[in-house]
Amino acid sequence: MAGTAVFAELVDEDGAFKYYSYGEWKKSSSGKSVAIINPTTRQPQFKVQACTQQEVDKLMDEAKTAQKSWAKTPLWKRAELLHKAAALLKEHKVAIADCLVKEIAKPAKDAVTEAVRSGDLVSYCAEEGVRILGEGKFLVSDSFPGNERTKYCLTSKIPLGVILAIPPFNYPVNLAVSKIAPALIAGNSIVLKPPTQGAVAALHMVHCFHLAGFPKGLISCVSGKGSEIGDFLTMHPIVNCISFTGGDTGIAISKKAGMIPLQMELGGKDACIILEDADLDLAASNIVKGGFSYSGQRCTAVKVVLVMESVANALVDKVKAKVVKLTVGPPEDDCDITPVVTESSANFIEGLVMDAKQKGATFCQEYRREGNLIWPLLLDNVRPDMRIAWEEPFGPVLPVIRITSVEEGIHHCNASNFGLQGCVFTRDINKAILISDAMETGTVQINSAPARGPDHFPFQGLKDSGIGSQGITNSINMMTKIKTTVINLPTPSYTMG
Ligand code: G3H
């Protein structure tokens, strides 16, 4: 389905997907392509252009020029185009989902959900932008000591310029539009560098923006090898802001990027603290959903369960009973557990499992792997000297650490380098608030698994989990700066009632 019908122009005569620049689909002058391996078959599925630095330079120049006239395009018109793109994303959800299934082994229904959620995000962003960008502030000077009312200060939100958007493989469409839509509504232009796994789904998404009729040069999408164009993009002098979601590459990017605003989300080791009074059925359902959906390949997945010893056996039994019901197999069959994205990811996960085995963790299921497919695994009696207690597997393996006090749980959570989300299960709201306040994470969920959505909620990580806050409103604000104009009056002036 990918590359057919309305998407046919995306593919060159060699079957490689083109890159998008100045409103056109183009072949790279490099004559080279990058292969995308299907995680399920482990065979090449697609290929994308290996763009050159010269091509990046050109589209950066185009983005800079296009942004100047886009900033003068009325807000309602920008919103109108975004609504069109949103409708097209939903119209072509099956074609987009088909790519997600083949490139990143996302279960079929979840893949469709990602496309629909992306359309909704773009629409909401258009509406929110019209509201918040249509407002500024008016300040008068005589509220500050020593001043009379001789100065009127007007503030407005203005675009940053060219935004570089780098989404991760696990949501190559949704986490791309979560950057693209706020950037565009705020009057910026966009250069998108999708992940290699997920690039074709992202190109299909970009085509929906193309069909909506955005001006030439305003949106570009470049594909290629990180070694060739990675640093070149992130250190490019035309880039005015980087919005990145991914792993610790983001730390390296932030060190090299220079004096531009950064929005970074770099993963998490989200802890799930279970108190003695918790509803254990609710906790078990959330642990399984939070730990194993999309095979644990979510930055907000439950990545460590910290359960009070007195209820640990009961909780582990309930979780085990649910894990056994998870279906395992290809994404086309909409299985719960599908192959992880690459062989090296599977090898990394296996390394964590073997380390835990060697150090004496209790295996609640037998460890099983075929190719990139890893069966869901709950590891009980994990101790802090095991790697799995601290590292993100990004796979269907979930450690349980038994604790004897709430403080021990909070200490483990806060000793992590990460600080994305966490959750606590208790029927005592007072305890929940105290624990939430003590957990050093950007969000704490009470009686539910961690999650980024709904997409207008603020989403942020502390420590190595990121810089800045996302969510639709925060992203629009982040992609603007404040401009003030001060009117100086010759004499104090007061408006009378
Ligand atoms: O992987 C990182 C995503 O931001 C997680 O999003 O909570 O909607 O799965 P999600």
**Ligands, deduplicated:** glyceraldehyde-3-phosphate
| Broad structural category | alpha/beta
What percent of residues adopt helix (DSSP H or I)? Answer: 25-40%
Strand order, biggest sheet? Answer: 14-17-18-13-12-20-21
Report the strand count: 26
Average of per-residue pLDDT values: 97
Query: Main beta sheet: strand number and arrangement?
Result: 7 strands, mixed
What spatial form do the alpha-carbon principal axes imply? globular
What's the number of helices?
14
- Low-pLDDT ranges: none
Rounded to an integer in angstroms, the radius of gyration calculated over CA atoms is 24 Å
Query: Alpha-carbon distance between the termini?
Result: 67 Å
List the helices and strands and how they pair.
Elements lengths: L18 E3 L2 E3 L6 E5 L6 E6 L3 H18 L4 H17 L1 H12 L3 H25 L4 E4 L10 E9 L2 E5 L7 H12 L3 E4 L6 H14 L6 E3 L4 H9 L6 E5 L3 H8 L5 E4 L4 E5 L5 H13 L9 E7 H15 L19 H16 L3 E2 L5 E2 L2 E2 L2 E4 L16 E7 L2 H10 L2 E2 L1 E5 L3 H10 L4 E4 L12 E2 L1 E2 L2 E2 L1 E2 L1 H7 L1 E9 L9
Parallel strand pairs: 7-8, 7-10, 8-9, 10-11, 12-13, 12-20, 13-18, 17-18, 20-21
Antiparallel strand pairs: 1-2, 3-4, 5-6, 6-26, 11-24, 14-17, 15-16, 19-23, 22-25
Helix pairs in contact: 2-4, 2-6, 3-4, 3-6, 4-5, 5-14, 9-10
Bound molecules: glyceraldehyde-3-phosphate.
The site of glyceraldehyde-3-phosphate has 8 residues, from loops.
